[in-house]
């Protein structure tokens, strides 16, 4: 399976609290819900079709709990095409603390060699092993060269606070742009493939 990630992000790189104002208020965050209602019908269709082509889903613990309490539990959301895709496919959670997942067809990838466990999943035949949200997990996957393709849905807003997808200091990574589009509401979709380390100008 190809491991792909999809992340909604602001212009200043924030990923925290994109859904509802109450989703994640940690560290004094007060500006949640910045992605709700953004994007036009084409963007919503793109997102839905992405979920529908998943062979399986991989989550971090926090995102898993949010999804299980919404797409996995609320009848109206379960009936939505995204909910159908999520509920029909196998789900994997990278967590050292989750012991009794409440969402059907969930497997917990506990401590130990997480990279090896995910590499085993990737070695299975099939389409995509998708990661949605899960910022900490996405960073870790990139650092461990496990991401095959990364989609950023960039919302035209600057928050000035909140957890960011990439830290101020971290590993460097070159990216090849394989697809880019902008919708009628200014939301951009950028699809990248990791391409090793960047090239830098030689020092004088």
Notes on the protein architecture:
With 204 residues, this protein is of the alpha/beta class. The chain has a single domain (2-194), classed as Dihydrofolate Reductase, subunit A. The chain is built from six helices and eight strands; from the N terminus they run E-H-E-H-H-H-E-E-H-E-H-E-E-E. Strands 4-3-2-5-1-6-8-7 form an eight-stranded mixed beta sheet, with helices on both faces. Helix 1 (41-52) runs parallel beside helix 4 (81-88). The longest helix is centred in the N-terminal third of the chain and has 12 residues, at 41-52. The mean pLDDT is 91.
Record keyword descriptors for this entry.
204 residues, alpha/beta, Dihydrofolate Reductase, subunit A, 8-stranded mixed beta sheet, 8 strands
């Amino acid at each position: 399976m190809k491991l792909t990630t999809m992340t909604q992000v602001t212009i200043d790189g924030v990923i925290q609290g994109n859904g509802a104002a109450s989703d994640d208020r940690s560290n004094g965050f007060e500006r949640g819900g910045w992605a709700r209602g953004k994007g036009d019908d084409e963007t919503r269709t793109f997102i839905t079709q992405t979920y529908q082509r998943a062979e399986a889903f991989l989550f971090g613990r926090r995102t898993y709990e949010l999804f299980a309490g919404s797409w996995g539990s609320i009848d109206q959301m379960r009936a939505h095409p995204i909910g159908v895709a999520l509920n029909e496919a196998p789900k994997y959670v990278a967590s050292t603390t989750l012991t009794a997942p409440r969402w059907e067809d969930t497997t917990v990838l506990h401590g130990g060699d997480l990279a090896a466990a995910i590499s085993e999943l990737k070695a299975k035949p099939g389409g995509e092993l998708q990661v949605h949200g899960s910022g900490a997990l996405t960073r870790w996957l990139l650092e461990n060269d496990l991401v095959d393709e990364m989609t950023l849905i960039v919302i035209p807003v600057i928050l000035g606070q909140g957890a960011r997808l990439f830290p101020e200091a971290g590993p460097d990574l070159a990216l090849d742009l394989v697809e880019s589009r902008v919708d009628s509401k200014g939301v951009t979709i950028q699809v990248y493939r990791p391409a090793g380390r960047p090239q830098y100008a030689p020092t004088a």
